[in-house]
Amino acid sequence: MGPMVALTDAIAAVLRSVRWGDVVTYAEVADEAGYPGRARAVGHFLAATDGEFPWWRVVAANGRLAPGHEHEQATRLRAEGVAVGERGVIGMRTRRRRPTGVRRVPRGSSS
Question: Which pTM value belongs to this model?
Fold first, then answer.
């Protein structure tokens, strides 16, 4: 398995673990996937998967919603009981855990 496949598989596993009413940041997804500093990769992954994963539950570090999708994201989050204001998610809690079975594969590794 190549490094990009490992990265996308790890991101997908973390996104599958984000439950109804939870909100996480792009950086938290990257950290939990075992790829700290790869928050942009999470955004690119979500943009490329065409709604397969709960993209509306992922926000910027400051709680800001996805540019161009603010209305739909706010509507979906509010439907899950998340407080959303003009500037994004209100009172966001962070989660710092790695889902079971997700491990980081070192860059350049073929395993």
Answer: 0.80
